[in-house]
Amino acid sequence: MIPGNKTSPPKKKSKDSLFNRINKWLHLWLGLVSGIIVLIVCITGCVWVFNEEITGLLEPETKVEWQNKPVLKPSQLTDIAAKLYADKVPAYANYHQGEVINLSLRDKVEKRGRRGGGGRRGGGVLLKVNPYTGEVISKEVRKPGETDFFRFILNGHRFLWMPYEIGRPIVNYGTMVFVVLLITGLIWWYPKKWNKSTRDKSFKIKWGASFKRVNLDLHNVLGFYSLLFLLAIALSGMIYGIKWYSEGLYWVTTAGEKLPEFRRMESDSLQAGKFYTPVQAMDAAWTKVIAKHPKSTGFYYSFPDTKLAKATIDITVYPTAGQYYNSQGYSFDQHTLKELKRKDPYSVPYNEASVGQKLRKMNFDIHVGSILGFPGKVLAFLASLIGASLPITGFLIWYGRKFKKKKGKSDSGRASAANLSDKPPVKPKLKVITKEQEPVLAANSVSTQ
Q1: CB 374: neighbour CB atoms within 10 A?
Q2: Is the pLDDT of residue 13 over 90?
Q3: Are 168 and 116 spatial neighbours (Cβ–Cβ below 8 Å)?
């Protein structure tokens, strides 16, 4: 280089193709933008997976050994509620084999609020009742807006503890971005050449290496191993929030069937008071359902709001303990007990459902891992934990490359300048001229005296 010429050397051309450069750019910037969303959603999902097991450990009194006899009827639960709270009526009851019945009570004159708002159901009372004896194990009075720990976790998972109308779309589309990140991450992870070195980097964590290397391995290796599980969790979660995606996936998996719109069933209000009282109707509907599913391991049913003549009786039974995919839902007219036929896939018996309908009925169990039983929930827990770590390890990789590299160059430049300034000045060397090297002077250059 010519002294004084400030022309920098030519830049090296990137060896990556345009596709790979775009892929890396998307993975980087989408990851930075959505990182905090992914972190919260994954951590809260990780905690919520074992909410039933954790509650059972913290509240052992809620565990009730299964007995080979019928559980309490709706009328019996209504009597229990009336003796304790005259100003309240049952809203719903749910039960899982080996546990208490959760009986929720509402005010006789219910104050209805907007949907969302932090997942509130308004004020109310939750009774935990022994399903065989009717003993009230515990009472929990909730003020409007008050939630328990796992409801708080679920609110964060669903809408980031923000107003529902704002937080829900952020979570929905943040999850979709996460799917893109998983795909772009797989493309970035895939080695250009397969050899022993690339296999070790792709599938093993070098624990004895520097923090920077271990962090990189945690991001790449754990991300690869959890990829399929995280995709299953994310894609199934999007069904609950993105309408066009839910409808499109149903259309594809059912070979062109349109997803039936959810339509709330209505009772014939003209028949009110002609056949059954509300309590009689509940018992009769319950008897019909349990006769069809005598070995059911759980149920959920809602008591009709007597202030609304068009309200229905809704009952869902769970044939398999800890799973929901083969559940069966029923709706009845509260006045005539006529069964109202729903058209959504959740009302179709599992053994009669098409492949696409079965997949939709399995969606919740896929999302929480229970489709594989308890081992599946463990896998969902670990995958969610890894998913929560990916934004952190990814940020550390980017920060280390973006800022520490520049800082290192700046520090090395200052160090070089300091080293040069600290060196003592170099003394000029005197050139010794020998006799043979003396110049020959011209005669006229010699002065004479």
Answers
A1: 12
A2: no
A3: yes
